[in-house]
Write a structure and sequence with these properties.
With about 525 residues, the chain is an alpha/beta fold. The chain folds into two domains: about 220 residues, Rossmann fold (3-Layer(aba) Sandwich), CATH 3.40.50; about 230 residues, UDP-N-acetylmuramoyl-L-alanine:D-glutamate ligase, CATH 3.40.1190.20. Helix content is about 45%, strand content about 15%. The chain is built from 22 helices and 18 strands. The strands form two sheets. The protein has an eleven-stranded mixed beta sheet with strand order 1-9-18-17-16-15-14-13-10-11-12, with helices on both faces. Helix 13 links the parallel strand 13 and strand 14. Helix 10 crosses helix 18.
């Protein structure tokens, strides 16, 4: 599901109107009616009272005029206000304003602070407020009377439904550029926008509904410019193919997981279970020899391989020879591996010599912080890295705060310059590809911020990569399912007590919900 910025949204509108021939008034009518449908579904009880529709002077206000008219046609009491001069209303918005006039509807002009103060007492008695003041075109912070409007509306305690974006947010950035409406629900038109899906903007959006207003999907997908998508089950469902009745374990990939060290065998175990529960046919955990007995006792489903180790109980550089001798389709490396110099030497040798795709996580990323130039993909061999923000910050030599404030740019820059796939974990995990595509994951919750959940994801990505032989598809599918499993675990366990094995326990349910939604909903 493509995420569009302001310029891309304008181009999608223009192409639909001029090249396809769907009139702009039809799109506006569709938008208004879709907003009303969303309001009826979410706020039916509040429609017994009065709805205040606050409109701007542009197309967002025009959508609001359609909302007001549609509500009235359905017998719902609505009061319509224009924040600004009525004479400044233009284009299709003016057409819909004039329609209200011909229907005998009074539209109240709020042209200054005194007028706002006068009429806000009426607005504050309503049971629902529709915010149709600004849409996707806003680029500067609100000022003057608009600051008062936003503050008063937010303080009213009345549920607010914003059209396209909460007024005050910019479609071009998830950052909050100034005062903005705190919506209870945002009905965004045709495609999601960045501040609706990424923090801190998303905190002001409430529940987000994506309304189909008649712009064809092909138009949205074809708009030029940066390609950012929100992961959606409809597209991911197509990736998973049913298994043939005569399948055998060799058909579903061989994964080697190089992980664990003295005191950190649990990380290797969690990665192995993540891979097994994601369908890998054969999973081998290669681990330092003294860690192997502990790891082998944890589960019978995965195989183990002892590796030469350093005095501190971590993998020795010489172990690379045995790892490369193993039969595998994918190597995952890093969980619980340790951060000593010997581990760094091993990981660099793995990058230099491995001919199969690599999934690097945790310690395998950290030991490269002083040598990030080694971390490159090749045309014949994909590399996927799965850092959390701290690991990403160490890798690029920047503060964590800078990574968190620029998650898309940081992930994209590293992916494109190093020709690797970056899975930047955290709230709204970012997937960036070597060709510049970006995916944002909507699933998951704060309960997953606990040790081990990242190790599970490492195993999952490796397993899907071994089955699909497509790094981008494997990242998208694994990240989405990982979050769904976390959401299912949250429903049963709550966020505070959730642990990584709770996520593993729901992986099968997560996949079933994706592939057989009619049987699980």
């Amino acid at each position: 599901m493509r995420i569009l910025n302001a310029a891309q949204m304008r181009e999608a509108d223009r192409f639909t109107i001029e090249d396809i021939g769907i009139p702009s008034l039809v799109l506006m009518e569709n938008a208004g009616r879709q907003v009303v449908a969303a309001i009826e579904a979410a706020y039916e009880a509040r429609l017994n009272g009065r709805v205040a529709v606050l409109c701007g002077r542009g197309n967002n206000g025009g959508d609001g005029f359609v909302v007001a008219r549609t509500l009235m046609q359905r017998g719902i009491d609505a009061a319509v206000f224009v924040v600004g001069a009525l004479s400044d209303v233009r284009g299709d918005a003016k057409t819909n304003l004039e329609i209200l006039g011909r229907l005998g509807v009074t539209v109240v002009e709020i042209g200054d602070a005194q007028s706002w103060e006068l009429h806000f007492s009426e607005i504050s008695q309503c049971t629902l407020i529709v915010d149709a003041i600004f849409g996707t075109g806003l680029k500067a912070a609100l000022a003057g009377m608009m600051e008062t409007v936003v503050a008063d509306v937010n303080a009213s305690g009345i549920p607010i439904v914003s059209i396209d974006l909460p007024s005050g947010l910019s479609a071009d950035t998830p950052r909050v550029i100034g005062d903005c409406i705190d919506a209870s629900m945002t009905v965004t038109l045709a495609a999601p926008k960045l501040p609706l899906v990424l923090p801190p903007g998303e905190a002001h959006a409430g529940d987000v509904v994506i309304a189909d207003i008649g712009i064809p999907h092909e138009v949205i997908d074809g708009v030029e410019g940066r390609h950012i998508e929100l992961l959606a089950p409809e597209q991911l469902r197509e990736i998973v193919e049913p298994r043939a009745a005569d399948s055998h374990k060799g058909d579903f990939g061989r994964v080697t997981i190089v992980a664990g060290s003295r005191g950190k065998t649990g990380a290797a175990y969690l990665a192995a279970l993540g891979a097994l529960r994601s369908g890998a046919g054969l999973v081998t955990v290669a681990t330092p020899s003294t860690s192997l007995p502990i790891l082998a006792s944890m589960g019978p489903e995965f195989m183990t391989e002892p590796l030469e180790e350093s005095p501190d109980g971590s993998v020795a550089p010489s172990a690379i020879e045995r790892v490369l001798e193993l039969r595998h389709d994918v190597i995952a490396c890093g969980p619980g591996l340790g951060r000593g110099a010997a581990v760094g030497e091993f990981v660099r040798a793995l990058l230099d010599r491995a001919t199969v795709p690599l999934v690097l996580d945790a310690d395998a990323i950290t030991v490269l912080a002083d040598d990030p130039g080694r971390l490159v993909g090749r045309e014949e061999r994909d590399v996927i890295i799965t850092p959390h923000p701290g690991e990403m910050a160490r890798l690029i030599g920047s503060p964590i705060e800078e990574v968190q404030a620029n998650r898309i740019d940081v992930a994209t820059d590293f992916a494109t310059t190093r020709r690797v796939y970056v899975v930047l974990k955290g709230h709204r995990t970012i997937i960036a590809t070597p060709d510049g595509h970006v995916y944002i994951n909507p699933t998951g919750n704060a309960g997953m911020a606990t040790g081990g959940t990242g190790d599970v994801l490492t195993g999952m990505i490796a397993a899907w990569l071994a089955q699909l032989l497509d790094a981008e598809a494997a990242c998208r599918l694994a990240v989405f399912l990982h979050g769904v499993a976390g959401d299912l675990a949250e429903a049963d366990e709550g966020q505070v007590g959730m642990i990584a094995t709770d996520v593993i326990a729901r992986l099968c349910d997560a996949l079933n919900r994706l592939t057989n939604p009619e049987k699980t909903n």
